[in-house]
Amino acid sequence: MENTFLATAAFGLEGVVANELKRLGIPAKAEQGGARFTGTLAQAFEANLQLRTADRVLMILAEHEVYTFEDLFQLTSSIAWERLLTRDGMIHVSGKCVRSQLMSVRDCQAISKKAIITRMQQKLGISRLPETGTRFPIDIAVVRDNARITLDLSGDALNRRGYRTWNGEAPLRETLAASLIDMSPWRTQMPFYDPCCGTGTLLIEAAIKATSKPAGLSRKFACEDYPFMPKEEMAAVREKAQASYSADAPFSIAGSDLDPEALKLCAKHIAQAGFTGKITTSLTDLKTLTLEGDTGVFLCNPPYGERLSDLKHARVLYGELGKLLKRHPGWKMGVITSDAAFERYFGRRATKKRRLYNGRLECEFFIFE
User: Fold this and answer.
1) Side by side, which strands form the sheet with 56-65?
2) What are the tens digits of pLDDT across the range 245-286?
3) Which CATH number does the domain 3-152 belong to among 3.30.479.30, 3.40.50.720, 3.30.2130.30, 3.30.2350.10?
4) 290: helix, coil or strand?
5) In angstroms, rounded to a whole number, what is the distance separating the alpha carbons of residues 284 and 289?
6) What is residue 135's DSSP assignment?
7) Where in the chain is the domain with CATH 3.30.2130.30?
8) DSSP string covering 114-128, please?
9) Amino acid 303: pLDDT
10) Are 31 and 8 in contact (CB under 8 A)?
């Protein structure tokens, strides 16, 4: 039996997630907020396990227009919760309301939870739900009077790979780092270098791609505790994913930074990701950095200079990045920054650029080819 799912994504990355699903053999279509796909429960589990660029995988349970709280109650009641939840399940309802008749998130949450409990009591013939067991995260989103009710299959967000337990000053979310890599000119057989590597997220995400390592291989997902999920099929999916991981695949991935403390964290993250001895890092100044090899890709997340006192220093660094690319005429470069004047200080116009968000910060991803 097939169901409909949504792999959620940050603004601007919906198409990247859709393309990643297609590479997994799962037809998907980008829409605002993510990529929608239809498939089996086992495929939804595979999406959780494999996706590098998505934030979460949600199971869409119902979608319909709602104009009153009674409409919302009836829509929520129409879902066969008794087939999805356990008798002692902990029902956690979150929500959002955007440009709709129903604009009270708290009331939408309360009414939806009441509808779920009422149906469970009626169908199971019980008077109360203890809510002491498995947690079921349910989301009620009412946007322009259209309600979408979903069950979160991921649990912790998919960027929680398990390798990053320490954060530097300006960490790049793992899913955004993986998206930048997919949008960049880099291919896994090419040299990859991050000249502002910080705590190593871009380096590790590049290595994950180069070795075909499932991003969620070392973590658990909420859906693994759901009674309706196919346990044997999920075990087979995980086993197949493990077999696809080419731990010994050759790659050339390296980086450098001027912050020795960041590099210490970087080494710890590389070790926790299982890439010790395979990713090279060094304490190196951009001004003197010169690499061997005729072709390759630089990819970096330099300081943005969000504080006025730091902006001048950040823009000097942008100029050094421009000079770095000039010293390597066969190389290409990708840079993400929130500074609208980046190209001016870099010294040339980008070949391509794309608007993205790093957290809540609006940024541009510049590619120089």
Assistant:
1) 28-31, 34-39, 3-8, 56-65, 146-152, 135-143, 90-98
2) 999 999 999 999 999 999 999 999 999 999 999 999 999 999
3) 3.30.2130.30
4) coil
5) 7
6) E
7) 3-152
8) HHHHHHHHHHHT-S-
9) 86
10) no
Q: What angle do CA 291, 299, 48 make, to 5 degrees?
A: 135
pLDDT at 296 over 70: yes
Contact (Cβ atoms closer than 8 angstroms) between residue 363 and residue 340? no
The CA-CA-CA angle for residues 194, 196, 200, to 5°, reads 70
Residue 5: CB partners within 8 Å, gap ≥ 6?
36, 37, 38, 39, 44, 47, 57, 58, 59, 60, 153
Q: Which residues belong to CATH 3.40.50.150 in the chain?
A: 174-211+246-368
Instruction: State whether the Cα torsion 142-148-154-160 is positive or negative.
Output: negative
Residues 312-340, mean pLDDT to the nearest whole number: 96
Sequence-ordered alpha helix ranges (H) in 14-83: 14-23, 41-50, 69-77
Residues in the chain: 369
What fold characterizes domain 174-211+246-368?
Rossmann fold (3.40.50)
Q: Alpha carbon of 316 to those of 300, 322, 342, 346, 368: distances in Å? A: 15, 10, 10, 9, 18
- The CB density around residue 189, as the number of other CB atoms within 10 Å, is 10
pTM above 0.85, yes or no: yes
- Whose CA is closest to 41, among 76, 96, 3, 94? 3
